[in-house]
Every structure is written in C-alpha cells, then in structure tokens.
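thread: overnight batch results

M.L. [08:02]
morning all. the overnight job finished for the chain we discussed friday. pasting input first so we're all looking at the same thing
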Amino acid sequence: MSGNWRRDRWFVLAVVFLAINAYGVYSAVKSSAGREGVSVVSFLPSDERPGGPSEPIRIRFSEAMVAPERAGSSASPSLLSFEPRVEGALTWAAPDTLLFAPRASWKKCNLFTVRLDPALRSLSGRPLVGERSFRFRSEPLRLLSVAQSNLNA
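M.L. [08:03]
and the structure it wrote out:
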C-alpha cells in the first residue's frame, strides 16, 4: 500500500505543478493582452482592389471605439488625413467601424494614402497600435472607343 501512495503522491504533485503552470501562463497572456492596444482589423477598399467611383472607406477596429449609442453619428474630421486631400463625411457606422464617404467621386487612376490620427483611442482607453497608414487606388482609366480619322489624307 505504501508503494501505491508513493506513486499517487507523485501523480498528485505533478497535477498541482501543472495547474500552477497553467494559471501562470493564463495570467501572463491575460496581462499582456491588456497592455496591447486596439488595431485595425480591416480597411476597404484595399490596395489590391480598386475603389469604385463613390465607394466609401470602411475601417473596422479590433474593439469598440465609441459607445453603441454613437453609431450612426458623425466623427471628428481630424481622425483621418488624406493624401491627396479629399473632402467628405466621417461617421461611426458601428461602435467598431469608421466610415468615410467622399463628397465627390474619387479622382480616377489615383493612389490615395489614408492616415489615422495616432492619438485615437478605443472606448476602453487603449491606444491605437499597428498599421495607421493605408493605401488604395481609385478606378483605373479605361479606353472606351477607338475611331480612325483623316481617311482622305
């Protein structure tokens, strides 16, 4: 019987150490997640897919940036800057989604750079980390028709 107890004692000790280590890993992951900031999950249109003539820019964040009751309300124009400069309306489409609708159609065959304000913070106060600058191309120029001229020359 003492042999069984000795074997069982080592098993119990191993399980206790496993539980302590699991708790340590869980605590480390949880505390490091709290130190990170909020990031951009998606930006549309992307550089791989040209934007349509009046397609809005949609930026989705990893967590809520505003309270749910602010969804649908306008956002501060200083949150985004454009190169080249673009006029338009900025709204919170959802607590985690910022929407920019250009006042006029995007200029064709242009590369646009959009920058987020580095001071932007989530609803919980976490800072913006990761990519803050995004690029996309507007619709390319297309050849619509070809006609021959000066047939008599």
